[in-house]
Design a protein that fits this description.
With about 260 residues, the chain is of the alpha/beta class. About 40% of the residues lie in helices and about 15% in strands. It has 8 helices and 12 strands. The strands form 4 sheets. The chain has a 6-stranded parallel β-sheet, sandwiched between helices. α7 crosses α8. It is globular.
Length: about 260
């Protein structure tokens, strides 16, 4: 790109995306010119991609209970739309596409995820995110880069999804099992900074961003309740029952299971 790094033009598809909006703020702090467009009602299809340095795909169908009759919707939004956006961006001379994927591409059977861990998606969400990743990587060539970002659970003020549900649970959980589990997470501001660097540097590749410290769910609930001015009593006497369930039952696995990215030096 001839344009100075701080004057990059960036298009973010996902006008209502929690992460997308936070990224836009971060990019503007770095003097990038940012345009946001919605994915609902195919609004992005009216956009002219020419003239942008990077296109960030932040829109997705997520945080819903998956039903078989909605499979086509997941396929359309999480796979077909990103692929078509990337094709149009490449044809228009855009130099980089950044795809906000997910840790969900690895499914739920792993505990530790390394650079060599092969994705094994189980949900519609994870399956079609992974298929989109593969197609975007095939498009790469000189002058067109694809950056695939797979965040773990994202948290922050007004955060939707699993973190938001856990926060609601914390409001009532004065007693909570301490299973000593280990999870990767990332704060939304830190994720926005990470994504901003990828965009401003025009990077490509697969990225697994996370906070510096792993999280224990019980300690996280305790900290949430502390901010609410409430005490929390942690106990371990039920671990003999909870730990086996966290390996086999979905809802227990999400709350009490281990799921973490290996740290990269």
């Amino acid at each position: 790109m001839d344009r100075d790094m701080e004057n990059k033009r960036v298009l973010i598809v996902g006008e209502h995306s929690y992460i997308g909006k936070r990224l836009a703020q971060e990019l503007r702090k770095n003097r990038a010119e940012v345009k946001m467009v919605g994915a609902r009602n195919h609004e992005w299809e009216t956009m002219e991609f020419a003239g942008y340095d990077s296109v960030v795909i932040a829109a997705a169908i997520v945080h819903k209970k998956e039903r078989v009759q909605e499979q086509e919707l997941y396929r359309s939004v999480n796979r077909d739309m990103p692929i078509e956006i990337a094709r149009r961006a490449k044809a228009a001379g855009v130099g980089q596409v950044v795809f906000l994927s997910s840790m969900a591409v690895f499914g739920s059977r792993y505990e530790k995820i390394t650079r060599n861990t092969k994705p094994k998606p189980e949900s519609f969400y994870g399956k079609y995110k992974y298929e989109a990743e593969q197609e975007l990587q095939k498009m790469e060539e000189k002058g067109f880069h694809a950056a695939i970002v797979r965040p773990p659970m994202v948290y922050g003020e007004h955060c939707p999804g699993n973190y938001g549900r856990l926060k609601k649970l914390a409001d009532y959980a004065c007693f909570f099992p301490d299973t000593k589990n280990k999870r990767s997470m990332i704060e939304v501001g830190r994720l926005a900074e990470f994504l901003s660097k990828i965009v401003l540097n025009g990077q490509s590749g697969i990225f697994h961003p996370q906070d510096k410290e792993y999280v224990n769910t019980a300690w996280m609930v305790r900290d949430m309740r502390k901010k609410m001015g409430k005490k929390t009593y942690l106990f371990t006497w039920m671990n003999w029952m909870i730990l086996p369930l966290s390996r086999r039952v979905g809802v227990f696995r999400k709350v009490f299971g281990n799921l973490w990215y290996e740290r990269e030096e």
